[in-house]
Model the fold of this input.
Amino acid sequence: MRTAIGVDLGGSHVTAAVIGEDGTIHKQYEVDLEDLSFDAVSRVLVDTIGKAVKDPDAKDLAGIGLGSPGNIEPRSGAVLYSPNFKWIDAPLGEMLRSHFDLPVYVGNDARCATLGEYTYGVGRGTKNFVLLTLGTGIGGGIVGDGELILGNRFGAGEIGHHQIRPSGGFVCGCGKTGCFEAQASGTGLIRHAFAVAPSFPRSRLLDVDRDKLGSKKIRKAAQAGDGHALAAWRNFTADLSIGLANIIAFVNPEVIALGGGVSTAADFMLDAVRGRVDELTTMVPRGTTRIVVAKLGNDAGQVGAATMAFRGGLTTQGA
Done:
């Protein structure tokens, strides 16, 4: 069986995995990033990918696939713009080809994750599918009629940046107010907790340095019945439901899969949003989109990047 190297480039780490054509991960190598300059990240990538390429399980290599944050030109693999890294026109694909005598493919990380989840996860067997990765931000990807939608300038799928509360919402990292990402990501849940804090003056929920406060703490407190956390959770899931209903109106998918760290709440999250999404769904027949938790978790990006290498690009069609 052929293998490929699937690489997930995140804002804090690099993971390179040896992955089989059936989506099985044989070996993973992960390194933290401390310096996000292009030269520093390139050195870490070359070293980490090099270890994966030399791994005994890396047999009959089809190539290297890499998912990176930002707007990617798929033919050259250049990162046209990545706010996470503050890169403009970074020659990522060219750099990797100069170090490895293998085909190299670079795609947006969220689109790679969508390809992985569609091919090997809960999207399998569908024609119209959406993946949302709910973490610090919201990434995503759309499959329409069996094809991964990339858009005119490779920017389709930026689901996190449609505005759901343009008046009175949180300011998004992109500069707009009330983006879906600003309201319904893990960061959004934390911001909701601070927003409702004046109504809970005796709450100890936020008695921690803000940079150490994670969305998981708030979610677990909500599950345990804490009033402050529940108020934040209700506002968070209300905003999540608006965004999901909008996606149903835009795309009418068979399945929306929720991945990323926030989605680990599983049934607690799904029970909060499914009914509200149905209420907000009007022009599309209600109940025709299943909202589920993604199957591949944090591995979706690597698996999708390897799939891109097997298929010669970000395509849902087999090589």
Remarks:
- Residues 260 and 298 are 7 Å apart (CA to CA).
- The chain has a mean pLDDT of 93.
- Residues 124-294 form a domain with the Nucleotidyltransferase; domain 5 fold (CATH 3.30.420.40).
